[in-house]
Specification:
This protein is an alpha/beta fold and 467 residues long. It has helices at 39-42, 81-90, 108-119, 138-149, 169-182, 193-205, 212-217, 220-237, 249-260, 271-275, 278-281, 301-312, 351-360, 366-380, and strands at 4-13, 18-26, 29-35, 48-51, 56-59, 61-66, 71-72, 75-76, 93-101, 126-132, 154-158, 185-189, 241-243, 265-269, 317-318, 398-408, 427-437, 440-443. The strands form 3 sheets. Strands 1, 2, 3, 4, 5, 16, 17 and 18 form an 8-stranded mixed beta sheet that branches. The protein has an 8-stranded parallel beta sheet with strand order 6-9-10-11-12-13-14-15. The chain starts with a strand and ends in a 24-residue tail after the last strand. The model has no long low-confidence stretch (mean pLDDT 97).
């Protein structure tokens, strides 16, 4: 039995086009597009018709940086794959790429298997995995080849967090050399963790324990230095590089310089760096702990440089780095010692709306919104055109978006499993109305109609920006 859905009367917005078109969905895929009101479109019949008049019809968002159930700082991220993917769907995201973790002394395979077990049968939307490489050795390097073959084509390394995820320059170089051979993409958390640990120790010794000092010790210059070093190591290895959660203007300058030299270097930023700042970290009564993440929030003047980087394509992707910890009982672990505050913010539900607000405010165009939130992450991580666009043959991951609806962001109304919102009280124009994942209704006119287990694991090809 084939199932057909027609979406009529909306403005279809992709990274490359805007067209008033009807969309025919058949058996979970986009079957055809035709200009609204034409005889071709009028001839379509379907079991389900969705009226998108006055609305945008956009591809489902691809959030290429989430951490569901991540162990960190003696606790776990508060969203499970079930709650986190449901919240993602509410926010118009239909694919996440989460990070499986290799623990030191264990194999990549063990880490990947553990993440498959967490996610399988629990996700409301489709998902893939990157692999965090914490322990580079000869066995790990061989495993990287095997993982690329089976669709885990990106590997994250950390210049930060000594004693946890940290890799030294030699380990990073070896992994980059391997990825240059097997087609994988190294993703880098670029902060000089060795130097930061010295500054943390010195700050605590001075009695500087409040959350705002988290931002002061993780200096923008140490993000820029690590970004520069990662670029040079990648250049030595002849490997591509993707720098995650870029927060500082100095780091953007390093990426821009490398790209001007023709290097295969890519950069991602996140909504928190575009909309929040050190003012939030400095909020009184330990409220600033809600905004502790790494890389940290920066002074407001950095925001203009990040927006410019998104416009000039020196930054290509906006992901969330969604890693929620509740204020009560989790963030509070760091009362009296900012270094013990679990690092991470909730955001998987807010990204598409915040970026639409950026369209409203003139920071980016509508098509650029879709490019940085849907199409480019899908291409970067080997899922395009199955994901990230509305075109015949693509998965029918489609969002009906009301650009005129107004909302106020609040923990009282969000669906993430966390007791605060990083954007509490923020007024936004634009809201997700209906979401389809592979043709199935997950959100129907602002009601959740999906279910755990609909989402399936999505193996990925290698980065589509490389020859």
């Amino acid at each position: 039995m084939s199932s057909r859905t027609v979406i009529r009367g909306g403005l279809v917005v992709t990274a490359s086009d805007e067209i008033h078109a009807d969309v025919l969905i058949e058996d979970g895929r986009i079957a055809a597009l035709a200009a609204s009101g034409t005889s071709a479109a009028e001839a379509w019949t379907a079991e389900r018709t969705i009226d998108a008049t006055g609305k945008y019809v956009i591809p489902g968002g691809v959030d290429a940086h989430t951490h569901m159930e991540l162990p960190f700082g003696g606790t776990f991220a508060s969203d499970t794959f079930e709650t986190g993917t449901r919240a993602a769907a509410w926010g118009g995201t239909t694919t996440i790429v989460d990070f499986a973790v290799q623990s030191v002394g264990h194999s990549l395979r063990e880490g990947l298997d553990a993440w498959h077990a967490k996610a399988e049968g629990n996700c409301a939307i489709d998902y893939g995995f990157h692999m965090i490489v914490s322990d580079v050795n000869q066995d790990t390097l061989k495993e990287m080849d095997l993982l690329v073959e089976e669709g885990v084509t990106s590997f994250k390394q950390f210049m930060a967090y000594p004693g946890v995820f940290y890799s030294d320059d030699g380990q990073i170089l070896r992994a980059m050399q391997r990825s240059a051979e097997n087609g994988g993409l190294i993703m880098m958390h670029a902060e000089n963790g060795i130097a930061i640990d010295v500054l943390v120790e010195q700050a605590l010794a001075r009695g500087e324990t409040d959350p705002r000092y988290h931002g002061e010790v993780r200096k923008a210059l140490l993000e820029a230095e690590a970004t520069h070093r990662a670029i040079k190591l990648a250049q030595v290895a002849g490997a591509p590089l993707y720098v995650v959660h870029v927060s500082a203007m100095e780091a953007v300058a390093e990426l821009a310089r490398a790209r001007d030299e023709g290097l295969n270097v890519f950069g991602e930023t996140c909504p928190q760096y575009l909309f929040l700042s050190t003012d939030n970290l400095a909020e009184p009564d330990f409220e600033g702990s809600k905004y502790v993440c790494s890389t940290p929030l920066r002074p407001k003047e950095h925001q203009a440089h990040l927006w410019k980087g998104l416009r000039t394509n020196d930054l290509q992707v906006v992901s969330t780095d969604h890693c929620p910890f509740c204020f009560v009982g989790q963030k509070e672990l760091g009362r009296g010692d900012f270094s013990k505050i679990p690092n991470g913010l909730p955001g998987v539900e807010n990204r598409m709306d915040l970026l639409h607000q950026a369209v409203v405010e003139g920071h980016i165009s509508r098509r650029r919104w879709i490019e940085i939130a849907c199409a480019t992450p899908a291409r970067m991580f080997g899922m395009y055109p199955k994901k990230g666009t509305i075109a015949p043959g693509a998965d029918a991951d489609v969002v009906i978006y009301d650009p005129h609806a107004e909302q106020i962001v609040s923990a009282e109304t969000h669906h993430m499993n966390v007791d605060y919102s990083a954007y509490e009280g923020k007024r936004l124009t634009g809201r997700v109305e209906t979401v389809l994942s592979r043709g199935e209704l997950v959100i129907t006119e602002r009601e959740y109609t999906g279910h755990a287990g609909h989402g399936v694991y999505t193996p990925r090809s290698t980065c589509q920006y490389l020859n």
